[in-house]
Each structure stands twice: as structure tokens, then as C-alpha cells.
Design brief:
By secondary structure, the protein is an alpha+beta fold. It folds into 3 domains: 108 residues, Uridine Diphospho-n-acetylenolpyruvylglucosamine Reductase, domain 2, CATH 3.30.43.10; 129 residues, 2-Layer Sandwich (Uridine Diphospho-n-acetylenolpyruvylglucosamine Reductase, domain 3); 200 residues, Vanillyl-alcohol Oxidase, Chain A, domain 3, CATH 3.40.462.20. The protein has 16 helices and 21 strands. A hairpin with a 5-residue loop joins strand 15 and strand 16. The chain starts with a helix and ends in a 15-residue tail after the last helix.
């Protein structure tokens, strides 16, 4: 075979492979499919248009009936079992640009998925398009500049694991299979946040595909207004395809673990926690939680993470470890990445979740009474309490330096329920609402990464004085509110 014939064969084979990569239905001609418009009305997508989109992308376009569609449409919270008209699984920024152009051109309801961890199911939709960047998971660490460049679909575990060999870290969340994009664009609380700031405080730049289908960079030097907004309200302004994070030197081994007491002494534990955490060094993070033990007994625990000199950490933690009579003390030197994945199983995907949450500026005796009383009054095992410590470096960022609100909060509080069976939905939600009612007056604002459905009507109040500035930027970059499945800033 001569070279010309050989190359022709290669090209023909490539074309066959490309055709096979497209949706199976294309071979017979994809029919028109029903879809949902931005405003909720019915619309129709021409099969030829979907085929053209798929042919233009490196990644896949999936519709119902395709192999992989059901797996791709599932999200972390099984309460939200939605069926998109199509899923664009993007392999590159240019794929994202084409998917956004398609969504805008057809005025489709649009969800953006990275890790798929939206508590309220906003990373999927029924009848619209899901722009799925989860195939884009590259992480590259430059140890000299201490910068990590992270693609939009990367998970927190990818960032942590790539940074660790260099003795570097940046703030990520507490469940390692969470998407870095969603966590960061909404703020980004985490175990080293008190030392290094929120995930969004460590951003150096973001590459973003806007509603107009343009790929732009936002940083302090380029599009600074957008960069300000992306740090706390970022899901409103486009699809993030990559991030640059500032990394910090930190020992890959931390002093960490949990202390557990019977829930009968919860008031005493919470009172001690309030006093001890109020004066804790930035290098110490203390999260409090309730749970039911293997025998069904209600328990209360504190997870400690000390990320600096271990000898000093032992001294700092001594009063905590000496408090009361614990049933468990697992604090020891462990790899930071091990700690970061320690909640993965309890927060695994495929379960059904609901939560209520808000920030606390202080943990007062009245708030403690409300917390303990609510958990005690709830049906056994149906409602769990979680408090994540804030303050430290998070609170030292000036409120106007980013869109993230509630900088002065010392704690973030959540009541959560998780279960397996759909028939429990109504009862679980009712129990959670009843438990939250006496607690809510002690909170102020909420964390947009863990919003419940009833909080979507209070977005403007939550952003406070930042909201007017966000609206003006939304009008400029997304006047049609293409990106509305989020803590939505309405362009007006």
C-alpha cells in the first residue's frame, strides 16, 4: 500500500471512529426531541441541530436512550432525579463555548455540572441542557511559583493529592469528591480556611465562558470586576473552565482526629467548644457534629485539625482532650489527604439529602440551648447537627474585597438529614423544618454552596450591599439570565 492510500485509509478509519463516538441514534438519524426553554415553556430541539453540536465537539453529547446517559444525568443528591434533554460532556474550553452557544441559541434551560454536588440539585435539570465539565480534571502544580492550575471538572481530591508531594496546600472543602469549581465559586470553607482563607480567597485567576460564548480570563489585572464577583457569586456569570490557585507551604502530615462524648453532655460540650474555639489559633480548625453510634445512642463529637508544628499542636489541644469523659479520642498524626477523605463515605453520592443552614457570629448560651433542644426533640437519627468553624484569615479579608458575604461569621451551622428511600422524603423534610425553626433566629445569612430551596428567595438579602453591584455585572455579562440555576442574581 502506498503512502497516499495508507493515509486515506487512516482518515477513513478516523471518520468511522468519530461517527461511532457520536450518539448511537445518529446512525439512523436523530429525531426531534422535546425540551424546556429558559422560561419554563415547551420547545423542540431538531435532531439535526443536536447532531451538528455533537459533531463539533471533542466530548460527547448524550440524549435519553444513549449508553451512558443515565449515569451522566445522576447527581450527588438522589432527591433530584432529573432528565435533561441533552448532556454536553465537554472535553475542552472550546466544547464549553459550543455548548453555551447552543444553549443560548435555542434558549434552553441550562445547568452547569462539575462535581454535581449542588445540595438543591441545581447542577441538573429536566428538559434543558446540562453543560458537564466533569471530564476536564487536569491539575498541574508549579512548585516554584506555588500555583496550581486546575481544570473546571477537577475534584477537591485531585487538587489536594497533586499539591501534597510538594508540601503545598490551598483551602478545599471537607468531602474530597466535591467539585473544586462549585466550592470555590460559592466561597469555599475548609479545614485550613482559618489559616489560609477561603478557597475563593486563594484564586489568582479564572478562565470563564460567558453567556455570549466567549472565553475570557478574570484576575486582578484582567476583568477585575468579574474577578470580584466570581469570588462568592461566581456561578451566575458563566462556565468556569480553569482556575489558578495560590498554594501555601504546609506539612503534608497534620495532627487530627475526633473526640466523642454522649449527647447527654451536649450543652457542656457546646459551651466548652464556644469558649475554646473563640481563642483558637488560626492553625487550628474545630468542627462539631452530632451522630448516632453503632448502638443507636446519640453522640456529639469535635473534629480537630492542627496544621502547623506538631509539638505546639499537642500543647494547644491539651485542654480540649482533657475536657470531660470522652468515649473516643482518635487525634494523631495523619496525612492531610487522609483527613480530607474521612467524610467521603458518610457523604457518599446516591443518598437523599436535605439541609438547613446559616451563619453564626457567635455561639451564645441561647443558641446552644436551641441547638441541643432541637436535636433532642427531633425523631431519633433523623436530624444531625454540624458546625464548621470560620473566623481567622477568613474574617480578616475586607468585606468589599470579594462578593462573598458574611465575612464576620465565626461559625457555619447546618442541620442535615440523609436517607435512602423516597417514601421517607416528606417525613424527613418535616422533621428538618421543625428542628430548624427555633435555630434560625440565631443565624444570619447563609452559605450559597449549601442552600435549601426556600433560601433562593433571599439571595439579594444574603449578598446585602454587594447585590446591586452583582446585578450590574449580571446585566452586562448575562442579560438573558442564561445561568440561573444557582444562587441567582437576577439582571432585572
Amino acid at each position: 500500500m502506498n503512502r497516499r492510500n495508507f493515509m486515506g485509509s487512516v482518515l477513513a478509519a478516523t471518520a468511522v471512529l468519530q461517527a461511532r463516538r457520536l450518539m448511537p441514534a445518529f446512525a439512523a438519524g436523530l429525531p426531534d426531541i422535546p425540551a424546556r426553554s429558559l422560561t419554563g415553556g415547551a420547545t423542540t430541539l431538531r435532531g439535526a441541530d443536536i447532531k451538528d453540536l455533537a459533531a463539533s465537539m471533542r466530548g460527547q453529547v448524550l440524549v435519553a436512550g444513549d449508553a451512558g446517559y443515565d449515569a451522566a444525568r445522576r447527581v450527588w443528591n438522589a432527591v433530584y432525579d432529573k432528565r435533561p434533554a441533552l448532556i454536553a460532556r465537554c472535553a475542552s474550553p472550546s466544547d464549553v463555548m459550543r455548548a453555551v452557544d447552543f444553549a443560548r441559541g435555542h434558549r434552553l434551560l441550562t445547568a452547569v455540572r462539575a462535581g454535581g454536588h449542588s445540595q438543591a440539585g441545581k447542577s441538573t435539570c429536566t428538559g434543558g441542557i446540562v453543560i458537564d465539565v466533569s471530564p476536564m480534571q487536569s491539575v498541574r502544580v508549579d512548585p516554584r511559583s506555588r500555583i496550581a492550575r486546575v481544570e473546571g471538572g477537577a475534584l477537591l481530591q485531585h487538587l489536594d493529592r497533586e499539591s501534597r508531594p510538594f508540601g503545598l496546600v490551598t483551602t478545599t472543602g471537607t468531602v474530597s469528591h466535591t467539585g473544586a469549581a462549585g466550592l470555590t465559586l460559592g466561597g469555599g470553607l475548609g479545614r485550613v480556611g482559618r489559616r489560609f482563607g477561603l478557597a475563593c480567597d486563594n484564586l489568582r485567576s479564572v478562565d470563564l465562558v460567558t453567556a455570549g460564548g466567549k472565553l475570557i480570563t478574570a484576575s486582578q489585572a484582567q476583568n477585575p470586576d468579574l474577578f470580584w464577583a466570581l469570588r462568592g457569586a461566581g456561578a451566575n456569570f458563566g462556565v468556569a473552565t480553569s482556575f489558578e490557585y495560590q498554594l501555601h507551604p504546609m506539612n503534608p502530615t497534620v495532627l487530627a482526629g475526633i473526640l466523642v462524648w454522649p449527647f447527654a453532655v451536649a450543652r457542656q460540650v457546646l459551651t466548652f467548644y464556644a469558649e475554646f474555639s473563640a481563642s483558637a489559633p488560626d492553625e487550628l480548625n474545630l468542627d462539631l457534629f452530632s451522630f448516632n453510634g453503632g448502638d443507636g445512642a446519640a453522640m456529639i463529637g469535635i473534629e480537630a485539625c492542627w496544621s502547623a508544628d506538631p509539638a505546639r499542636g499537642q500543647r494547644v489541644l491539651k485542654p480540649l482532650r482533657a475536657f470531660g469523659r470522652t468515649t473516643e479520642d482518635s487525634i494523631r498524626a495523619i496525612p492531610y489527604t487522609e483527613l480530607q477523605s474521612s467524610d467521603d463515605e458518610s457523604a457518599r453520592g446516591g443518598m437523599r439529602y436535605h439541609n438547613k443552614s446559616g451563619f453564626l457570629t457567635e455561639l451564645t448560651p441561647r443558641a446552644i440551648d436551641a441547638l441541643v433542644g432541637s436535636v433532642e426533640a427531633a425523631p431519633p437519627g433523623k436530624v444531625a447537627l454540624f458546625i464548621q468553624q470560620a473566623g481567622g484569615a477568613i474574617g480578616r479579608v475586607r468585606p468589599d474585597d470579594s462578593a462573598f458575604p458574611n465575612r464576620d461569621a465565626r461559625y457555619w451551622l447546618m442541620l442535615v438529614s440523609s436517607w435512602w428511600k423516597a417514601e421517607e422524603d416528606a417525613g424527613r423534610l418535616a422533621a428538618l423544618r421543625a428542628a430548624w425553626r427555633p435555630i434560625e433566629p440565631h443565624t444570619r445569612g447563609f452559605y450559597v454552596n449549601s442552600m435549601s430551596e426556600d433560601q433562593y428567595q433571599r439571595v439579594a438579602a444574603n449578598y446585602g450591599s454587594h447585590y446591586a453591584r452583582l446585578v450590574q455585572l449580571k446585566k452586562k455579562l448575562d442579560p438573558g439570565n442564561q445561568f440561573r440555576l444557582n444562587a441567582n442574581v437576577v439582571p432585572g
